[in-house]
Amino acid sequence: MKDNPHQSHPQITARLRRAHGHxxxxxxxxxxxxPCSDIAQQLFAVEKAIVKAKRVLIHDHIDHCLSSDRESSxxxxxxxxxxxxYL
Length: 87
What we know:
This protein is mainly α. It has three helices and no strands. The protein has one domain (9-84): Metal-sensitive repressor, helix protomer (Methane Monooxygenase Hydroxylase, Chain G, domain 1, Up-down Bundle). 70% of the residues lie in helices and 0% in strands. α1 packs antiparallel against α2. The longest helix is centred in the middle third of the chain and has 30 residues, at 36-65.
């Protein structure tokens, strides 16, 4: 495994596993014809978990991969533009 400064990856993985569980629940609820309001609530949980995981990933990338104290001459502006379009 390569040296990785992304200490947030285990946290992101945990969030995505929770989202995966919520999504599996949504599918089961649809198959069981659960009330739409209950399904919507579970979908909301999936959405929030994914949005939070994405935000943490992007902020971590900015902090660790685009910081000006890297070995290069400065932060990679194109990489910054690319990653921030996903916010």
